[in-house]
Design brief:
The chain has about 650 residues and is of the alpha+beta class. It folds into five domains: about 55 residues, Helix Hairpins, CATH 1.10.287.610; about 230 residues, DNA ligase/mRNA capping enzyme (D-amino Acid Aminotransferase, Chain A, domain 1); about 100 residues, OB fold (Dihydrolipoamide Acetyltransferase, E2P), CATH 2.40.50.140; about 150 residues, Orthogonal Bundle (DNA polymerase, domain 1), CATH 1.10.150.20; about 70 residues, BRCT domain (Rossmann fold, 3-Layer(aba) Sandwich), CATH 3.40.50.10190. Helices cover about 35% and strands about 20% of the residues. The chain is built from 24 helices and 24 strands. Strands 12, 13, 14, 15, 16, 17 and 18 form a seven-stranded antiparallel sheet that branches. It has a five-stranded mixed sheet with strand order 2-11-10-3-9. Helix 1 packs across helix 2 and helix 16 packs across helix 17. The chain is globular and about 80 Å long.
């Protein structure tokens, strides 16, 4: 293969990987592999002078594929050049003073405050055009809604989800595991929601890393002074230290020791000159600014032998492959297993029995296989589910090969389904942990979901179980009784329908007038008319309700469960049907915007996060506001109404 052919091959391969990562929030290769191929391509381009039009070294990101409003950045948001050598970092800094900080691994966001109030939040997007996520930014856990500064302030930072929240979300909503492999992907999906309630529930945090401009502070020439000023304004800033050529190597070492204790995801460090004017004077290349540089640790690798691949079934039927290898020491801990995510990755690594492999910790935390030295290939894929023994199926989803158990009665699915059913966002039954449910299922107390409501038949046996007693049993029965009256969306969410969580359950129930019978009979064609419900989701729902066993389970549950319809009075429930609202600004008559949103939905209306041609009304008590939503509504001829107007309307 010629060097030109290799350049073309690498360009296509990296373009596919970047498109999957940035547009579709999925991974088809590890960060380690991507970085290695990127460096190889960059070296070949420098050597030959050939740069393909689609080369990742010649562009930033991808065009955005979403329904969010798009805006152009006032100045391009370029990527940073990078190095893995601490000595290179010291050489780059020279005799200047610099600020060394974490390179947070989330979603870069630009915030604009006017007269002390958040006016706009925009994602980095492709570096030139970003998506407007103002409605979502307002529910970031640590973002000030007002700052003590009257002039316009523009700053940049990273929206992230902490590891602890990432693990909590994956544990409670197992089907997300197949979509979100790391906090960065989960954060990207959370920040770019049309419904900011989902964003709020995901616990997104914002860390400021740079001031772009602030009216009234134009004469300040220190990056650190600007960071400290942002902290004074109420922002959480990225942890940093000031460095010179004398102490930078020691500070890099100290940063490396902190990684394993951090609850936030990072993929390296950023070094920027403290002297702003000096940094600006250096200009920029077509792709990189010259005032800052990124540092990524050279991953510590260890060679070991593959022992086997374990196949781990989940509630959704997805069977996840996990590599088990001879234990090795990495970054101070013993590692013996690493997720392989899907069959495509197994094939790309050409894994075979007892292969010699190299493993590392991505970002010094997550074990991954970086290379297969022997590449014998042909590792046998499990042809039977390890939980129930059913024959497995290989499926292609979004270009990724995955393994599934098709058995709807799979025991692994059953325990996970039972755990999901009793969860806080579903039927909210205390006292039934996954371990307890497993014990009860093993003893034959629970075979189907409705058996939970018949546990009083086993009072004596349950009281005698380890960890139980009379009081524990009584508390459990009380919690079960309390759950018998619930809201329909909670019940629908509890069933474990693929692709249906709390938010989508609400959309479906509201659309069908909180009638389970209507929902169960609804065709795909009607469901896809609901904003936010696509064909894949609609097909999952229809397939679920048309399954004979599922019908039996639902009918069995309905013998014990009734639905609370108090929130939707019969004489008013359709008064806003077909109307779409957007809510912005402060509210006076309602407790908060969420309460106003629920009122609209209970009356048959819809609430979206951005003003589009489909919007009927923008609710804003400040009709003369110069906010982007007001401007957009006026451009489109959409009525701007106050809360009083809305109350008159209903």
């Amino acid at each position: 293969m010629t060097k030109k052919e290799r350049i073309l091959e690498l360009t296509v391969k990296l373009d596919e990987a970047a498109r999957a990562y940035y547009q579709e929030d999925r991974e088809i290769m590890s960060n380690f592999e991507y970085d290695a191929l990127y460096d190889e391509l960059l070296a070949l381009e420098k050597e030959t002078g050939i740069v393909m039009a689609g080369s990742p070294t010649n562009k930033v990101g991808y065009e955005i594929l979403s329904q969010l409003e798009k805006v152009d950045h006032e100045s391009p948001m370029l990527s940073l050049d990078k190095t893995k050598s601490p000595e290179d970092l010291r050489s780059w800094l020279g005799d200047q003073k610099g600020m060394l900080s974490w390179k947070m691994d989330g979603l870069t966001v630009v915030l604009t405050y006017r007269d002390g109030v958040l006016a706009q939040a925009v994602t980095r997007g492709n570096g030139t055009t970003g998506e407007v996520i103002t409605n979502n930014a307002r529910v970031f856990k640590n973002l000030p809604s007002r700052i003590p500064w009257e002039g316009e302030v523009v700053l940049r930072g990273e929206a992230i989800i902490h590891y602890s929240d990432f693990e909590r979300i994956n544990a409670s909503i197992e089907d997300v595991e197949s979509r979100y492999k790391n906090p960065r992907n989960l954060c990207s999906g959370s920040v770019r929601q049309l419904n900011n309630e989902i964003t709020a529930n995901r616990n997104v945090y914002f860390y400021a890393f740079g001031l772009v401009s602030a009216q009234g502070r134009e004469d300040h020439n220190s990056v650190e002074e600007n960071m400290l000023w942002l902290e004074e304004m109420g922002f959480t800033i990225v942890p940093y230290v000031m460095v010179t050529g004398e102490n930078i190597l020691e500070e890099i070492r100290i940063f490396s020791e902190k990684i394993r204790q951090n609850d936030f995801p990072s993929d390296g460090l950023v070094l920027i000159y403290d002297d702003i004017a000096y940094g600006i004077s250096l200009g920029r290349t077509a792709k990189f600014p010259r005032n800052a540089i990124a540092f990524k640790w050279a991953d510590e690798e260890a060679e070991t032998s593959l022992i086997r691949i374990e196949w781990s079934p989940s509630r959704t039927g997805l069977i996840n492959p996990v590599a088990i290898f001879e234990p090795v020491e990495l970054e101070g801990t013993t590692v013996s297993r690493a997720s392989l995510h899907n069959l495509s990755i197994i094939e790309s690594l050409a894994l075979g029995e007892h292969d010699r492999i190299k493993v590392y910790k991505a970002n010094m935390i997550i074990p991954q296989i970086s290379e297969n030295l022997t590449r014998s290939g042909g590792y046998p894929v499990a042809d039977h589910c390890p939980a129930c023994g059913s024959q497995t199926e290989i499926r292609m989803e979004n270009g990724v090969k995955t393994l599934y158990c098709p058995n709807p009665f799979c025991s692994a699915k059953k325990i996970k389904l039972l755990t999901h059913f009793v969860g806080r966002d579903a039927m909210n039954i205390d006292g039934l942990s996954e371990a307890t449910l497993t014990k009860m299922a093993d003893r034959g107390f629970i075979e189907e979901l409705y058996d939970i409501y018949r546990l009083d038949r086993y009072q004596e046996e349950i009281v005698g179980m380890e960890g139980f007693g009379v009081k524990s049993y009584q508390n459990l029965i009380q919690s079960i009784e309390k759950s018998r009256k619930t809201q329909l969306f909670r019940f629908v969410n509890s069933l474990g329908i693929p692709n249906i969580g709390e938010a989508n359950a609400k959309l479906l129930c509201n659309h069908f007038g909180n009638s389970l019978d209507t929902l169960r009979q609804a065709p795909v064609e009607e469901m896809v008319q609901i904003e936010g419900i696509g064909e894949v989701i609609a097909r999952s729902v229809v397939d679920y309700f048309s399954n004979e066993h599922n019908e039996k389970v639902i009918d069995g549950l309905l013998a014990y469960i009734s639905f609370d319809t108090a929130e939707a009075p019969v004489d008013q429930e359709k008064s806003l049907e077909g109307k779409t609202f957007v809510i912005t600004g402060n509210v006076n008559h309602f407790k908060n915007r969420k309460e106003l949103k629920e009122k609209i939905e209970n009356l048959g209306g819809k609430v979206t996060g951005s003003v589009t041609g489909k919007t009927d009304y923008l609710i804003n008590n400040d009709k003369m506001s110069s906010s982007s939503k007001n401007k957009k509504a006026k451009e489109l001829g959409i009525s701007i109404i106050s809360e009083e107007d809305f109350l008159d309307m209903i």
